[in-house]
Each structure stands twice: as structure tokens, then as C-alpha cells.
Amino acid sequence: MTKVDVGGEIVVPPRRMLRVSPPLAWLTVTPFTLWAVARLAGLDAAGAGVALMTGTPYVAAASTVAVLAALAGRRRAVIVTAIATTAALAAVVLPRAIGTAPTATSATGPVLRILTANLFYGVGDAEAVVGLVRRLKPDVLSTQELTPAAVEALDDAGLGRLLPYRHLEDAPGASGSGVYSRHPLTRLPDFAPEGSHNMPRARIALPSGPPVEIVDVHTLSPVVRDVALWAADLAALPSASPGVVRVLAGDFNASLDHAALRAVLARGYVDAAGATGNGLAATWPANRRFPPLITIDHVLYDRRAVAVDTGVHAVPGSDHRAFFAEIRLPGRL
């Protein structure tokens, strides 16, 4: 800054504030506003909108730039619109990083530990998965993209000694899935729509507490030609039920910014990661030169339970991080 001496008095020229033309300010703010409207209204059920909506946390952060542009435009309408847009996006994203206070006063039962891992066409490192089982001591392991070769590799690594009970629907490629359990389980009828990935479910007999049903979730990927099938997979997931504590665990191929997943939550579930303030921990794509970008692996639990802790864990060879959750069950139903 240059100081000017005028008649013995030093005069500092006033700072020039950055100014943006009103049209440019509106041009900057409008895309964020449209995104917020689409997110709040659930307008993501078709075409590229499904994939794009997973970027909402990043759009929410970037929307602060629009607020600065609006302030520089010095027009009340654009400033109000920009602030409202950022506030709306923050309202749907920030709770995942903050967590929620437990509200289920009935959650006085045992803790159920759940680990879910997508094995990427069966090539995820079996030794690493079994190492996680040894360290985290889950009661249940939910696997997706479980191939016959992966079943053999997991057994060779010692999984059967740690989780001796199983309900497997392994298959070549991406369609196979399987539930491994520390406790006895009973197989239950399939529910997945025809043409979907296998999604086995089983009832676990815990030493104490109410009956627990585990659903191994793996929806189809919502690429353009399969968006309707992906939505049908999510819609087919069983709702929470009064007579059992139901847990949905796996690769949903959906984030909390998808209306279809929020509709599942509305049927009696809570997202474990979001409840514990870990909802922005990305799980896909893993093992790349860049970190994972989006959160599509979840554990959803009955509202009568409470999430105690969650975490994500690397699985070499897989394009997903494994997700772990501890859930305190209700003492009785």
C-alpha cells in the first residue's frame, strides 16, 4: 500500500473492495442453489443425477465460494440466496460429522459387532479380512462380491475358526455374498428382486438379548441402464419389524444424499456412521492413488438400538474400505 504525504499529513488511500458484477454473482450462486433444491426435493432418481448426488458434501463445502461472490456482488437478493443455499446444504451434510445423541432408551442389551466388506470380485486380501476379524472381534461378517475362490481363501486364512457359522450365496463375479457369524444362525428366505446380486439374510441366536436378523446388502450399481433396478433393490429391503432387531449391512451403492436410501431409513432404521459422527468417512473407491471419495457402504440398524462406535478399514486388493459398527441392542422387544 502506498502512503502519500500531503502537506505534512500522511494520507492512506482507501482499500478497494473486490466487486463482482451482479450477473456474475448470480451465475456463481445459481448452480449451488439448483443442487440444494434437487437434494432437498430428492430429484436424483434418474440418469446422471444418481451418481452426481454423491458429491453433495463437496458441493456444500464449495458453496461458501458462492457466498463470497454474492457478497462481492452487493445485491441483497443474491446474498440471501447464497447464504440460504449454503445453510441448506450444511444442514444435510454436517450432522453426519457431528453425530446424534442416542434417543433409544430401550437400548440396554448386549453389543452386536458387525463388519462388512466388499471383496471386489473376490480378490480382496483374505488374510487382511481375517486379520480385521481377529482384531475387531465382530459377531457378524457381511461380505459382498464373494466368489467360490474367495470362500476358499478365507477358510485357508482361518476364518472358519473365528466365525464358524455361515450362510453363503457365493457366485462368480460380483453377484455372490455371504454372512459369517460367531453365533448360530438360521437361514431365512431370499427377498432380492430377480436379476439382482445375492443378498442373503439370516437370524442370529445371540447368547442374550433379542433375536437379530442380518441382511447382507449389495444393490446393483446405479449406472444409467440400471438405475431403476438399483432403486428396486433398495425398495425391496425389508423394513424394521416389531418382533426382531433387523440390521442391514453391506454395499448399498448409495449415499445418504440419495432419496432412495433415505426412504429405507424412514422405514425404521438409523445409519450407524452418521449417528456416531463418522458419516463422511468415504469407503469407495479404495486402494487408488487418491483417497476414497464417497460413502456407499453402510450399517443400518433398528431405531430401538444405539450405535456405540464405527470405523473404516483398508482391505488390500478391494476397491472398498471395510466398515465396522458396534450396536447396542434393546434389552427386550
- CATH class membership of the largest domain: Alpha Beta
Distance between the termini: 72 Å
Count of the separate structural domains: 2
How many whole angstroms does the radius of gyration measure?
24 Å
**Helicity, in percent?**
25-40%
Number of strands: 14
Largest sheet composition: 6 strands, mixed
Which architecture name of the largest domain does CATH use?
4-Layer Sandwich
- What is the residue-averaged pLDDT? 93
Q: Structural class, from secondary structure content?
A: alpha+beta
Pattern of helices and strands: EEHHHHEHEHHEEEEEHEHEHEEE
Described by the principal axes of the CA atoms, the overall outline is elongated
Tally the helices. Answer: 10
What is the CATH topology assignment of the largest domain? Deoxyribonuclease I, Chain A
- The name of the CATH superfamily of the largest domain reads Endonuclease/exonuclease/phosphatase
The strands making up the biggest β-sheet line up spatially as: 5-6-4-3-14-13
Query: Strand fraction band?
Result: 15-25%
Q: Low-confidence stretches at least 5 residues in length (pLDDT < 50)?
A: none
Pfam family, one: Exo_endo_phos
Transmembrane segments: 24-42, 48-71, 78-98
Keywords: Endonuclease, Hydrolase, Membrane, Nuclease, Transmembrane, Transmembrane helix
GO molecular function: endonuclease activity; exonuclease activity
